[in-house]
Amino acid sequence: MTRAIIVGSGMAGLTTAAYLARDGCEVDVFEQADHIGGVTATLRKEGFAWDLGPLMVEGFAPGEPAGQVLAELGCADRVQLVRGDRGIAFPDYRVFRPAEYLGPYWRRERLKEIFPHEADGLDRYYRFYNTILDLMTLARQAEGASPLRALPLKLRMALLFRRIQEYQTWSAQQVMDHFFSDPKLKAFFLGILADLVVCPSEFSGLGIPALNQETAYDNRLPAKVSSAGPRVTFQYVVGGCGNLVEAVASVIRENGGRLHTSRPVRRVLLEGDRVRGVELADGERKEAELVLVSGGAKECFFKLVGREALPADFTAKVDDMPLMESVFMVHLGVDMDPSAYQDVALNYYYGTYDVEGGVARTRHSDYHEGKDGFLIYIPSFHSPSMAPPGQHAITVYTIAPNKLEGGWQARRQEMTDKLLHEAEKIIPGLREHAQVIVSLTPVDFGELTYMVDHHSFGGMCPVMGKSGAPHRTPFRGLWFLGAQSESGGGVSLVTHGARRVFNLVKRET
After folding, report:
1. Would you say the pTM of this structure is higher than 0.85?
2. Pairwise CA distance, residues 301 & 315, whole Å
3. pLDDT tens per residue across span 469-483
4. 19-69 per-position pLDDT tens digit
5. Is residue 330 domain-shared with residue 317, that is, in the same domain?
6. Taking the alpha carbons of 480, 483, 489, 494 in that order, is the dihedral positive or negative?
7. Which residue of 82, 88, 280, 320 is surrounded by the most CB atoms within 10 Å?
8. Number of alpha carbons in the 13 Å side-chain half-sphere of residue 114
9. Apex 459 CA angle, 281 and 299, nearest 5
10. Could you write out the DSSP letters of every residue in 45-74?
């Protein structure tokens, strides 16, 4: 029986461990924290519960990429989902889901009302959008199809690609400049890049439609609006993302796998060009034919493996990886009803139209303290069990630099007050009604995710021409997973990427 060790229990590690355990491997998962799940865990305190980050998850519905993973593992029925959506507010306008459903392109028509001089550009942009979304839909179908079935799909993709080929080297900023003239409208589509802490000038323009899918902004939209097939939808995990974690973990346990918390790994053991196991922080050695590591790429390769053991070209690739910045997150349990001020679970509130400048300042440790924007997430709207009766769980969340003048820990309370001051412009009385306040700084997240040197909340920064660390390492039997790998960031991508790694491992062992 092949023995496999998984280092890290985020969704990438757990998914791979579940596949390996079901395939008959002897599996041990070692997690440095006192709980499994990484940033996909759910935090609980005094009857309140908050997700640590994923908020809405993409593509977990039946038949969608991550949903297929859950189905293959046999745990899809253990995860209850509800369609989610979000609204967007800027200083001068807002676009929230209307009370009455107005069709799949109501946001386009609403934007024409706000920016009548941009009506032609909006029509052209949405044709571009539909082409990109159709290409994505066909690509998903082709990935899982037989060669015979994939051929007509790829031919159709080739024809569609000709429509947008001229944009393939354009940045997001160039694409927006091509379609629109008003900076306030450009910011509407570019604002989501702040989540990734990537500048519009360095992000691929073809990625803008993927980050602004209409199904993310109205849960009433049908998945299928095109002959290409259904597009992905967005969901909340009922009861918190920790239930998703536990569903996958249950597959590991049921197939004989073991989950070890508070057991950090000190180093990966190598013999020549082959992995031999790991050494834990307490000195205990565990032998294994397979070791799969997730977390920070630099921490994993340069600390657990050792820079001196790696080929120069591989080291250079890891050194060259651009990383996202971190987040500052404040969780509240309140004894008030916030629905008079925000009546849906999730809204984004932007304080600036200068996405490029805001991201650049964050990268240079110039923290905006919430003034440039934040989101408010109220999970108890879709999952009342996440708060005591008559009360609500609320998360206020914003991007933040890893390093802060004076230190995050020393300034935790100050930064908590400043972010809540901005949030109270939307929902007055948050602090007055707070029964519980829990703030999480970049330092807290770095310690949780084994990214102590540089916490990157979403993984690798998606800069054009750059890629994450390869799944396959220079050592036989050693693989790399997660948001800083070539799979990319986001719970859906790392979950689907873990499935891909399992299939690679199976073919090579």
Report:
1. yes
2. 8
3. 999 999 999 999 999
4. 999 999 999 999 999 999 998 999 999 999 999 877 899 999 999 999 999
5. no
6. positive
7. 88
8. 20
9. 30
10. ETTEEEESS--SEES-STTSHHHHHHHHHT
